[in-house]
Sequence to fold (349 residues):
Amino acid sequence: MKTLGYAAHSADSELVPYHFERRELRPNDVAIEILYCGVCHSDLHTVNGDWGPQAYPLIPGHEIVGKVLSVGPEVTKYKVGDQVAVGCMVDSCQECDQCEKGEEQFCRHGMTPTYGAPDRVTGAITQGGYSKHIVVREEFVLSIPENMDISRTAPILCAGITTFSPLRTWNVGPGSRVGVIGLGGLGHMAVKLAVAMGAEVTVISRSKNKEAQAKEMGAKGILASTDTDAMQAAAFSFDLIIDTAPVKHNLDLYTPLLEVDGSLVIVGQVGPMEEQMTIPLVMGRRRVAGSLIGGIAETQEVLEFCAEHDIYPECEMIRIDQINDAFERLSTGDLAHRFVIDMSSLSAE
Fold:
């Protein structure tokens, strides 16, 4: 299938229009016309080569919403015209213990990311959602609940599941005290989801500049990490802290905030952290953990949870030709929302 996307041709180049071909349908494939695609901070990191060398040209995008154009003969879950979504992965072995229990992101043989990785069958590099079409095996296509606003759904496929999964894993519910470090693309979804689960939620940020936004989302307020007295007074205040900071930072500032047996879960930074003192961990049997997106079943669950509770990311709609400006803003600004590309804007190219 001939199609069009926006690709980076090197780590220091802008994204530009790129004509390429999607694979012909395999028996279990679904061909999708992409209607909206979210812009994730990891798109920027990957394109820039921050996480290692990339195979260019590279089309990013793993928060994909669209409609089914055609299906392979073995597809049973989807039909032409269905509203569907694709998240951060498009394949896994489907046979290991992790895949069998619905944790495909931890596939023992390595899951296949939506872009920038070899296809399990052909070895061709996968290309993402900043494009008009995508072809994905049925098992990695998600159903969008009928009542959802698809123009605001895309970021749930990454920002939503990335924060929903640890909230579920650590059994957040009524009475839980949850802290969220940062009110950016991930953080604002963590707040909305935790509030809907019944938790008492506090945003932890360098300043209180976004306190009004945090309260509008249901948080009780902001704990300013630069306020030494307030931070000391907040010791033992949280059962769970979701750490969405996307850069190297010092956890010693935050671990004393955890209750005994509390956990701080890293979902933002991928890479090195500053040297850490063990004393706050030892003195409170506290834990530092990490979490990677979520499995397909759990991603379907977060879509349905958001539909049920009318939860949407804060979205700024852009045209595809505004993507480089969006990347620039993403790299320099602390944005409490997600960019979403209206892919109908690509048809004029």
Summary: The chain has nine helices and 17 strands.
